[in-house]
């Protein structure tokens, strides 16, 4: 059982940056693929970024490519999401999740955090 806790969300202005963190406990963090997802009110949960167990492979949603960067520190059991050039449409509850295979469908993820809110004002 993997327990995930996100942090780093907040209220920022258009063009600002934020770094989200997701701390894992209760499992072998380095064996998991880690993903970031987000969900805006009234919308489906959508894929943002994913990173392989060793950080060697990363994938991004087209909407965040070039602005967001996912990374991980297996020694600290933590995955990060650096978000630059934030836009109002990035406003959502951001979740980290863990799975075994490199996937972008939230249905394929086994473990989820509670989420951290990101609000970008125009």
Topology:
Blueprint: E1 3-7, E2 10-13, E3 18-25, E4 33-39, E5 46-51, E6 58-60, E7 68-73, E8 78-83, E9 92-99, E10 111-112, E11 116-121
Parallel strand pairs: 2-11
Antiparallel strand pairs: 1-3, 3-8, 4-5, 4-9, 5-6, 7-8, 9-10, 9-11
Give an account of the 3D structure.
The chain has 122 residues and is an all-beta fold. The protein is 0% helix and 50% strand. It has no helices and eleven strands. Strands 2, 4, 5, 6, 9, 10 and 11 form a seven-stranded mixed β-sheet that branches. Strands 1-3-8-7 form a four-stranded antiparallel β-sheet, with no helix packed on it. It is globular. The mean pLDDT is 97.
Could you tell me the mean pLDDT? 97
Strand tally is: 11
Biggest β-sheet, characterized? 7 strands, mixed
Structural class of the secondary elements? Answer: mainly beta
Measured between the Cα atoms of the first and last residue, the distance is: 40 Å
Helical stretch tally: 0
CA gyration radius, whole angstroms: 13 Å
Shape: globular
Instruction: Provide the β-strand percentage band.
Output: over 45%
Q: Order of helices and strands, N to C?
A: EEEEEEEEEEE
- Provide the helix percentage: under 10%
Low-confidence regions: none
């Amino acid at each position: 059982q993997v327990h995930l806790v996100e942090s780093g969300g907040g209220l920022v202005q258009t063009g600002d940056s934020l770094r989200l963190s997701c701390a894992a406990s209760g499992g072998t963090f380095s064996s998991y693929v880690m993903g970031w997802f987000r969900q805006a009110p009234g919308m489906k949960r959508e894929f943002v970024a994913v990173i392989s167990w060793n950080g060697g492979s990363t994938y991004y949603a087209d909407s965040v490519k070039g602005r967001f960067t996912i990374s991980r520190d297996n020694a600290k059991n933590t995955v990060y999401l650096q978000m630059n050039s934030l836009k109002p449409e990035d406003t959502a509850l951001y979740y980290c999740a863990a799975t075994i295979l490199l996937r972008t469908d939230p249905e394929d993820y086994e473990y989820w955090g509670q989420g951290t809110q990101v609000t970008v004002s125009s």
